[in-house]
Amino acid sequence: MSTTERARGSRVVWWSRAVLGAGGLALMGYGTAGLLDEPSYVDKWGVARWLVGGLVLHDAVFATLVFGVGFVVMRAVPARGPAPWVRRTLLGGLAAGVAATLITLPALLRPLPTQNPSVLPLDYGRNLAVVWGVVAAATGIVIALRTWRPGLFRRDR
Amino acid sequence: MSRIRIPRLPRAAGAPDIPLPEPPAALRRGPLREGAFGSALHDPRTAVVVGRLLGPAFAVCFLTGVLSHLMQHQPGWLALPSRPVWGYRVTQGLHVATGIAAVPLLLVKLWVVYPRLFAWPPARSVRHALERLSVAVLVAAAVFELAGGLLNIVQWYPWPFPFVPVHYWIGWVVTGALVLHIAVQLPTIVGHWRRARGTAVPQAVDGPSRRGLMAALGASVGVVTLATVGQSFSPLGKVSLLAPRRPGVGPQGLPVNKTAAGAGVLAPIRDPAWRLTVVGPRGFSVSREELLAMPQHTVTLPIACVEGWSASASWTGVRIRDLLERAGAPEHATLRVFSLERFSPYAVMEMRREYARDPLSLLALSLNGEPLAEDHGYPARVIAPNRPGVLQTKWVSRMEVVL
Question: pTM of the predicted model, to two decimals?
Fold first, then answer.
């Protein structure tokens, strides 16, 4: 019997699930009712479109790109190219760079100028390039250290 | 490389459920094929390990968000303290920093569970279908809150609805959906909370490791946090290359949320006939010179915006409680403050006694030793401890003692 099966049979877990489930549904209901009651919220479908749009953007576009890039990086020239751990380290660095890019997209794409010079005062394109440079350098250092000392970062074996 | 095992969904004992027919196997193509996703890290243990970081992150965002809502729309039954002076600054800095850190956390969590989107059959039963629908609500609301927040902190609103109430209410929806998700997945969470005992499976030396995934996740969270947190944590201001604000950038070295031009107040604030009117039992009206002739006090207080940025500054002006005394206001009175700004939900602000009587609460006339810049609220503005920036009313023209 797995730990999950055992947990499913436990009375404590059963009651916790009942309470959490009811509480979660109540919170969702409160939020939905509050939104529909909101006087300043006129375009009832606007929020629904943005909610579904975000879901589709992740599940159909972003995730497809991520899995596509992962597949290509891991499977391209399997016999000759770099070892799998090097490829995974590269993917890790890529993830950090992509995270930084995603949080900067609003600053990069926002129509300028803002009315307020203290909003977005920096050169975000240049700064993002600096962040990518730092991430690339750190990734390179990790790969170099692990090549030099193969046991490094592998305590979980 | 092990196949992903999709664990059977929890089944509450005795609860009724209606099975659904399985679609024709010919439809099981592409990502729906068995074993279409290779990595061993799409497993319940990894989902739990990432989820117990993401869950608290959303809890912090929810609690700090509700706190800000209560401070901006203070209900009558709730007395709020004016201390600690940095209360709003820290909680709202945390709100935005945690939301930014939640971006890589959410994306990695979704990466881990993504193969389950293609579970076969798509719905075994009505309950299974409802469970999957609740996950769709959770993901849609979570993406919506994080993306909406990121656009708000650059003051960009490309949608057809007001940001603040929608972000607030969807915050309740996402929190509810998360609590429901924890209820549905509780047996899996309990079963995988600890590393499985006695299963030191010798992985291939080159195989994917959970530790490697967590290292990449940690690096991503570290990068996005360092790159932005300086907008509220001033010592890192120069490190935060991607922050929408930089402490020290703005008129008189302080950022501004709304400029005088943007608020449409340039003409009235430049009018030499400007006077402050205080309405109360012994109401009075004073010019800026007369305010400067009253006892002046200097305080160091942060201006802290719900958008996460904040900066400390030195403010000089008249204590609000001195103005209340002069107007003959009773000890318990609430103060209502009017701005010259007209078309804003924050044009009228109320200040209860905890704030109005605090010795640090000023009607400020100077900032960092110079007369207030127009963008900072010239001729006079409110500055009080532990208050949302939008309630630090600028371009004040009138105060009313509310009895």
Answer: 0.93
Is B388 within 8 Å of B331 (Cβ atoms)?
Answer: no
- pLDDT interval class at B11 (50, 70, 90): low
Q: Is B340 helix (H, G, I), strand (E, B) or coil?
A: coil
Contact B215 A153 (CB under 8 A): yes
Structural contact between residues B144 and B168, judged by C-beta atoms closer than 8 angstroms: no
Q: Could you read off the pLDDT of B138-180 as tens digits, one per residue?
A: 999 999 999 999 999 999 999 999 999 999 999 999 999 999 9
The string of pLDDT tens digits covering residues B97-112 is 999 999 999 999 999 9
SS3 content of chain A, % helix, strand, coil (to 5): 75, 0, 25
Judging by beta carbons within 10 Å of its beta carbon (0-12, 13-18, 19+), is residue B98 exposed, middle or buried?
buried
- Mean pLDDT (chain B) is 93
Q: How far apart are CA B318 and CA B372, in angstroms?
A: 13
How far apart, in whole angstroms, are the C-alpha atoms of residue B140 and residue A57?
10
Structure-block tokens of residue B139: 């993901």
Long-range interactions of B151-157: CB distance < 8 A, separation 24+ = B151/A106, B152/B307, B153/A106, B153/B96, B153/B244, B153/B307, B153/B308, B153/B309, B154/A106, B154/A107, B154/A110, B154/A119, B154/A120, B154/B244, B155/A114, B155/A116, B155/A119, B155/B307, B156/A106, B156/A110, B156/A111
Reading phi first (left if > 0) and then psi (alpha if -120 to 50, else beta), residue B30 is in left
DSSP state of B161: S
Q: What is the three-class DSSP state of B314?
A: strand
Interchain pair A100, B227: CB under 8 A: yes
Of all residues in chain A, the percent with pLDDT exceeding 70 is 95
- Quote the DSSP letter at residue A58: I
C-alpha dist (Å) from residue B219 to B131, B216, B362, B388: 33, 5, 43, 32
Chain A interface, best mutation among B118, B130, B217, B224, by max A CB count within 10 A: B224
Nearest to B148 by CA among B130, B119, B171: B171
Q: Tokens 């030793």 sit at which residue?
A: B369
Taking phi over 0 as left and psi of -120 to 50 as alpha, with beta for the rest, B84 belongs to beta
Residue B1 is predicted with a pLDDT of: 39
The answer to whether A28 and B177 have CB atoms below 8 angstroms apart is: yes
* Alpha carbon distances (Å) from B261 to B267, B299, B330: 9, 27, 37
Mutation target among B100, B135, B179 for the A interface, most CBs of A within 10 A: B179
Q: Establish whether the linkage from the previous residue to B295 is cis, with ω within 30° of 0.
A: no
Neighboring chain A residues of B174 at a CB cutoff of 8 Å: 31
End-to-end CA distance of chain A: 26
Cβ neighbors of B90 (< 8 A, separation 6 or more) are: none
Question: Which is nearest to B318 in space by CA: B289, B296, B293, B351?
Answer: B296
**Using CA atoms, how far apart are residues B389 and B394, in angstroms rounded to an integer?**
10
Question: Could you report the per-residue pLDDT of A97-143, keeping only the tens digit for each?
Answer: 999 999 999 999 998 777 888 999 999 999 999 999 999 999 999 99
Instruction: Give the torsion sign (CA, A44, A45, A47, A51).
Output: positive
Please write the tens of the pLDDT for every residue from B56-86.
Answer: 999 999 999 999 999 999 999 999 999 999 9
